[in-house]
Design goal:
It contains 4 helices and 7 strands, in the order E-H-H-E-E-H-E-E-H-E-E. The chain is globular and about 55 Å long. With about 180 residues, the chain is an alpha/beta fold. Helix 3 packs parallel to helix 4.
Amino acid sequence: MSFMHADFPLREYRQRWESGKGMRLTEQICNVSQFLCRFRVQLRYGELTRAPLKLLRLEVLAESMECDWLARPQDQWDADLPPGVGLRHASLQTLRDAIDVRSLVFGSFSGLDSAHFRIYRDSSDEKREMIVTGHMQRNDNSSRRLHSLSMRARVLGFRFHLEDDILFELPKGSNPFPATSF
């Protein structure tokens, strides 16, 4: 697992603690430790691609958090399959991982009301492209009855561009958390 940095804004915690709202800093640090351990163990291998997820950034605030990670690449064993099958598998795995990480975040941090996610993919020209983003609310459980993986991810609040079961880069310069764009 690759871990770049975690931000703990102490001023915001001090203000929350003095007002009696939010979690104490030590409790939040324990929650971060629990999340990182679960992230590393539970999401080590995917169902369609076996590469591990790489956490890029985790920022925990008093009532929200931001989490960025690198999507799993297509599996090496898919190289002999027809063109596009490996990309489809990697894209579907990315959507499964997004839903699983959302569940893991709200299971690990009981005091969080919302979370922002960004998922990147390494491209062939050695730059990262954002392929999935989303703003989630804790109480949004409306997707449990949906069988379509992409529709479940959309209902939960993830935004992405999917064509032929392959994720494409999100347009640059647009609002990453628009209310109505799909």
